[in-house]
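Entry 12.
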Amino acid sequence: MTTNDDMDAVFAALAHTSRRRMLDIIRDAPGVTVGKLASHFDVSRITVMQHLAVLEGSGLVIGQKDGRSRKLFLNAVPLQEIHARWIDQYAAHWGDRALFIKQVAEAAAAKRNSGDDDG
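Predicted 3D structure (C-alpha cells):
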C-alpha cells in the first residue's frame, strides 16, 4: 500500500525533466550503468547522482552493484499503484457518469419518438 509520503516522493521525482528522461533511458535499457546514463546528460556526474538519489528514494529506480559499476533498473510498481489509485478510480467514475448521460439521452429520444413530447 502506498502512503501519501510515498506518493509525494514519486510526484517530486517526476517533477523534473531530467529525472523523467533518466527513467525513460533506464526503462529502455534495463541494467544501464550509472556512467552510461550520465553520458546522456550535459551536466556533472554529481548532478546525475543527485537526480538518481531522488529516483531511488522514490522507489522508481533500483540500483544493483555489479563489480565496480552499478546497474540501474526501473521499478514501475509505484507508478502502477498511483495509476490504480487515480486513473482507474476516475475512469470508473466517468464511466458511470457517461452511462447516466446515455440513459437520460435515450429516455428523452424515446419520449420524443412516442409523441409524448410537448415541444
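Annotation: Residues 77-113 form the longest helix (37 residues). Residues 9 and 57 are 7 Å apart (CA to CA).
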